[in-house]
Amino acid sequence: MNTLSAVPTARLFPSIWKLIRLRLLLNWNAFKHAKIGRKIGTILLVILAVAFTGFIFFLSWLLLGFLRSANLTRYVGFNVAPFLQSVPVLIFALIFLGILFSSFGVLLQALYLSGDMDFLLTSPVPIRAVFVTKLLQAVLPSFGLAALFGLPVLYGLGITGHYNLLYYPLVLLSMIAVTLAAAGLSALLVMLVARLFPPRRVAEVLGS
User: Fold this and answer.
1) In the predicted structure, residue 194 carries a pLDDT above the cut 50
2) Is 60 exceeded by the pLDDT of residue 140?
């Protein structure tokens, strides 16, 4: 396994990538040495997540196509297009608020109560890289859950509305930006609270 360079570097992004690459390597090694049952369970979980994403996309495609149909407009007596145009804003707002509140406890554990934090802070990498890497690792599950539900709906909206091809990568980039903004704000709140109260005590209050 590659180790961290012995010479400290002031470059932030290469250090972040190095820490993330080492974490991915550790996870891969843990998967390779896991029991057969756990490997099969992990693979099945990934397959189910992909199938669930496809199912949500199919349902959203059918529903949004129905909402855009002329028959529905004649039946309800008004155009639903303005509502459909506001769907991306609603989804991004829900993602921002969801990650902002759900990431607080996770970031508290990752930044102040993690067992490997002392080792990482003494490693020859910038301290900022350690905190950014911890933030990314903590927010990744929340981003995956948001993408699992949000991307199929947004992509279904684009397909039924015949949006430009640039819409699809921009939706993903916007979701990443919203996730990082919410996680960054949550991390600032965690650091503010940790300066006022003991982190372990805060974790106990959140867990009670």
Assistant:
1) yes
2) yes
